[in-house]
Amino acid sequence: MHEENATLRRLLSDHGISLPAPPGSAAPTEATKHENDPVAVSQASNPEVKIALFRSLFRGREDVFAVRWEAPDGRTGYMPRADRDWKAYSGSKPEDRKKVDRKTRNTGP
Question: 106: how many CB neighbours lie within 10 A of its CB?
Answer without folding.
Answer: 9
